[in-house]
Design goal:
It is a single chain. By secondary structure, the protein is α+β, with helices and mostly antiparallel strands. It has one domain: RutC-like (60s Ribosomal Protein L30, Chain: A). The chain is 23% helix and 29% strand. It has two helices and six strands; from the N terminus they run βββαβαββ. It has a six-stranded mixed sheet, with helices on one face. A hairpin with a 2-residue loop joins strand 2 and strand 3. Helix 1 runs parallel beside helix 2. The longest helix is centred in the middle third of the chain and has 18 residues.
Length: 126
Protein backbone atom coordinates (compact mmCIF):
# COMPACT_ATOMS: atom_id res chain seq x y z
CA UNK A 1 0.00 0.00 0.00
CA UNK A 2 1.10 3.53 -0.60
CA UNK A 3 0.04 6.78 0.93
CA UNK A 4 -2.08 9.23 -1.06
CA UNK A 5 -2.11 12.99 -0.66
CA UNK A 6 -5.56 14.56 -0.33
CA UNK A 7 -6.09 18.11 -1.60
CA UNK A 8 -9.12 20.31 -2.16
CA UNK A 9 -9.54 23.95 -3.07
CA UNK A 10 -12.41 24.01 -0.56
CA UNK A 11 -9.92 24.26 2.31
CA UNK A 12 -6.95 26.52 3.01
CA UNK A 13 -3.80 26.02 0.97
CA UNK A 14 -1.33 23.90 2.91
CA UNK A 15 2.20 25.02 3.65
CA UNK A 16 4.96 22.42 3.59
CA UNK A 17 2.49 19.68 4.57
CA UNK A 18 -0.53 17.93 3.05
CA UNK A 19 -4.10 18.89 3.90
CA UNK A 20 -4.54 15.18 4.55
CA UNK A 21 -2.93 11.84 3.80
CA UNK A 22 -4.83 8.63 3.13
CA UNK A 23 -3.27 5.28 3.96
CA UNK A 24 -4.81 1.83 4.25
CA UNK A 25 -8.36 3.21 4.47
CA UNK A 26 -7.52 5.84 7.09
CA UNK A 27 -7.45 9.60 6.50
CA UNK A 28 -5.16 11.77 8.61
CA UNK A 29 -6.20 15.43 8.36
CA UNK A 30 -3.53 17.97 9.29
CA UNK A 31 -4.21 20.51 12.00
CA UNK A 32 -6.53 23.18 10.67
CA UNK A 33 -6.83 26.73 11.94
CA UNK A 34 -9.37 29.39 11.00
CA UNK A 35 -7.95 30.48 7.65
CA UNK A 36 -10.03 32.03 4.88
CA UNK A 37 -9.79 29.88 1.73
CA UNK A 38 -10.08 32.91 -0.56
CA UNK A 39 -7.41 35.10 1.03
CA UNK A 40 -5.35 32.55 2.93
CA UNK A 41 -5.40 34.92 5.89
CA UNK A 42 -6.37 34.05 9.47
CA UNK A 43 -9.93 34.78 10.58
CA UNK A 44 -9.84 36.29 14.08
CA UNK A 45 -13.44 35.73 15.03
CA UNK A 46 -14.88 34.29 18.21
CA UNK A 47 -13.95 30.78 19.30
CA UNK A 48 -17.32 29.64 17.91
CA UNK A 49 -16.62 31.27 14.52
CA UNK A 50 -13.12 29.82 14.37
CA UNK A 51 -14.39 26.35 15.30
CA UNK A 52 -17.14 26.46 12.67
CA UNK A 53 -14.71 27.51 9.93
CA UNK A 54 -12.17 24.86 10.95
CA UNK A 55 -14.72 22.05 11.04
CA UNK A 56 -16.19 23.15 7.70
CA UNK A 57 -12.70 23.00 6.18
CA UNK A 58 -12.13 19.55 7.72
CA UNK A 59 -15.49 18.39 6.34
CA UNK A 60 -14.47 19.55 2.86
CA UNK A 61 -11.12 17.76 3.09
CA UNK A 62 -12.78 14.54 4.25
CA UNK A 63 -15.35 14.69 1.46
CA UNK A 64 -12.53 15.10 -1.08
CA UNK A 65 -11.03 11.92 0.40
CA UNK A 66 -14.29 10.01 0.01
CA UNK A 67 -15.16 10.20 3.70
CA UNK A 68 -17.21 12.46 5.95
CA UNK A 69 -17.68 13.78 9.45
CA UNK A 70 -19.69 10.68 10.40
CA UNK A 71 -16.56 8.59 9.75
CA UNK A 72 -14.26 10.50 12.10
CA UNK A 73 -12.63 8.22 14.67
CA UNK A 74 -10.40 10.61 16.64
CA UNK A 75 -10.30 14.38 17.12
CA UNK A 76 -7.57 16.49 18.69
CA UNK A 77 -8.68 19.96 19.73
CA UNK A 78 -6.10 22.56 20.74
CA UNK A 79 -7.54 25.68 22.34
CA UNK A 80 -5.77 28.74 23.71
CA UNK A 81 -7.94 29.00 26.84
CA UNK A 82 -9.99 26.23 28.47
CA UNK A 83 -12.46 28.90 29.59
CA UNK A 84 -13.58 28.89 25.91
CA UNK A 85 -14.10 25.12 25.74
CA UNK A 86 -17.88 25.38 26.28
CA UNK A 87 -18.17 27.78 23.32
CA UNK A 88 -16.09 25.44 21.14
CA UNK A 89 -18.10 22.39 22.29
CA UNK A 90 -21.40 23.96 21.25
CA UNK A 91 -20.25 24.31 17.62
CA UNK A 92 -18.38 20.98 17.75
CA UNK A 93 -21.68 19.21 18.58
CA UNK A 94 -23.24 20.60 15.37
CA UNK A 95 -20.67 18.67 13.32
CA UNK A 96 -20.55 15.45 15.33
CA UNK A 97 -24.20 14.69 16.01
CA UNK A 98 -23.76 10.92 15.97
CA UNK A 99 -24.86 7.90 17.90
CA UNK A 100 -21.20 7.11 18.57
CA UNK A 101 -19.18 10.35 18.65
CA UNK A 102 -15.47 10.21 17.87
CA UNK A 103 -12.83 9.80 20.55
CA UNK A 104 -11.42 13.20 21.45
CA UNK A 105 -8.88 15.12 23.41
CA UNK A 106 -9.20 18.85 24.11
CA UNK A 107 -6.21 20.61 25.56
CA UNK A 108 -5.14 24.14 26.27
CA UNK A 109 -1.99 25.18 24.45
CA UNK A 110 0.05 28.32 24.25
CA UNK A 111 0.95 29.98 20.99
CA UNK A 112 -1.27 28.58 18.22
CA UNK A 113 -0.37 29.59 14.67
CA UNK A 114 -0.98 33.27 13.86
CA UNK A 115 -2.29 33.91 17.37
CA UNK A 116 -5.55 32.07 16.69
CA UNK A 117 -7.56 30.39 19.45
CA UNK A 118 -8.38 26.94 18.03
CA UNK A 119 -6.69 24.23 15.97
CA UNK A 120 -8.22 20.84 15.20
CA UNK A 121 -6.96 17.69 13.48
CA UNK A 122 -8.81 14.42 12.87
CA UNK A 123 -8.38 10.81 11.86
CA UNK A 124 -11.20 9.26 9.82
CA UNK A 125 -11.84 6.21 7.65
CA UNK A 126 -13.03 5.93 4.06
Amino acid sequence: MKKEEIYTKKAPEPGNYSQAVKYNGLIFVSGQTADDIETGKPVYGSVAEQTRLILTNIKNILEEAGSGMNKVLKVNVYISDMDDKKEMDKVYAEFFDQEIPPARIAMAVKGLDAGLDVEIDVIAYE
